[in-house]
Every structure is written in C-alpha cells, then in structure tokens.
Amino acid sequence: MNEVHVGTYCSVAATAELVATKWTPVIVHDLSEGPRRFTQLERACPGISPRTLSERLDMLEDQGIVLRRSYPESPPRVEYELTDKGRALLPIIREMRKFGHAWLIPEPVPSA
Amino acid sequence: MNEVHVGTYCSVAATAELVATKWTPVIVHDLSEGPRRFTQLERACPGISPRTLSERLDMLEDQGIVLRRSYPESPPRVEYELTDKGRALLPIIREMRKFGHAWLIPEPVPSA
C-alpha cells in the first residue's frame, strides 16, 4: 500500500467515525437550515433524551462542528449553529441521504 | 418532526451504519479501481487479519455491495467486484475523503 492509499484510508476512516456517531448526521442536517435552540433540536431527533442531546452537542462543540452562542437576555437564549467545518459535512450527508433513499429506505411521500 | 424528516433521519442513519463499518470504505474504495483477488484486498487493508477480511467480504456480499466471482481454473481463481449498489457508495466515500483531508488529516505527499 503506497502513501496515497494510507492517506485515503485514514481520512475516510476518521470521517466515517465522525459521521457515524449516532445523532450527529441528524443534528448537522437540522442545523443546516439555520441556528436552532435546544428544544428545536430535541424535536429533530426522535426519541433522544435531553441528556444525550446535551452530551452530543458538547462533543460537536469540542470537535469544532457546532458553535454555541448564548445571548444575554432574560430568560437567557442559547442557540447552536454550524461552523465552516460543520457545513463541510453537508455534502457527505446529502450523498448518504441519496444512497439511503435509493438503496435502503424508500423516500416517504409527504402527507398532504 | 414531519415524515420527510423521519425519512431523512432513517436513510442517513442506515447509510451511516453501513459506511462506518470498519474496513467497508477501504474495501469499496479499492474495488472501485477494478476486480480484486483476496490477497490484493488484504494489501489494501493495513493490519486486517485474513479472517476479518473474509467475514467482511461475506457481509458485503450479503448486503449486495460486493459480488464474488469464481473462475473454474486450476488453481481456482476468485475475484471480488462492486455491484451497482456498491458503486453507488463511491460518491459518499469521495466526499468523506475530501472532508478528511481538508479538516482531519492532511493529504500525504506521494513519495517520488
């Protein structure tokens, strides 16, 4: 295996680990539509517990994917948004969605 | 969460599970260059054991991603190749590689 192969291996494997963490693609996809508050993200993640969502958001902040902004209002407002690195994940998620619909799960028909 | 969101969630999550399985992206990437024999795939996966590679290839065959062709020669020749479904994973892997090089691991300089 030459160095280019090693590089491909490592960069794909590292990214795979990142996008396959449960909830990460859903949170990133939801934030692609704009900044979100905690309760909005909770609604986007079916069945997630507040504790898990909070841990996941901390992790995404540590990974430089999500930015947490708090506004000194009363009551204080906290919003989450994607960083440039977070937005760079979107093409992967789009391709994953396309593959999933084409090969794994049929596209749902939106209810009228 | 509306049905379109549920669909996005499920298709992305199902695909994430698939591409994040250790070695799957590397094997699919290697097979994108053409049919491969077992020993060639072994070289493409640094540190994989023959047993793990064999299990992974069985799994990829069950998932409809890899096709195993055996040629009645002496000694018998077995080759693995991508199915259409397997090839449909390539845009995801390409985007993962791009992201990895840009944000996680720098692109290696090929040795002269």
Q: What is the topology?
A:
2 copies of one chain form a homodimer.
Chain A: H1 3-19, H2 24-31, H3 38-44, H4 50-62, E1 66-71, E2 77-82, H5 84-87, H6 90-104
Antiparallel strand pairs in A: 1-2
Question: Describe it for me?
Answer:
Chain A is mostly helical and 112 residues long. Chain A contains six helices and two strands, in the order H-H-H-H-E-E-H-H. Chain A has a two-stranded antiparallel sheet with strand order 1-2. In chain A, a hairpin with a 5-residue loop joins strand 1 and strand 2 (77-82). At the A-B interface, helix 1, helix 2 and helix 6 of A face helix 1, helix 2 and helix 6 of B.
Characterize this entry briefly.
Chain A has 112 residues and is mainly alpha-helical. Chain A contains 6 helices and 2 strands.
Low-confidence stretches of chain A: none
Measured between the Cα atoms of the first and last residue of chain A, the distance is: 54 Å
Biggest sheet of chain A: strands side by side, in what order? 1-2
Q: What form of chain A results from the Cα inertia axes? A: globular
Number of domains of chain A: 1
The CATH level-2 architecture of chain A is identified as Orthogonal Bundle
Characteristic terms for this protein:
two-stranded antiparallel ribbon; Arc Repressor Mutant, subunit A; 6 helices; 57% helix; mainly alpha; homodimer; 112 residues
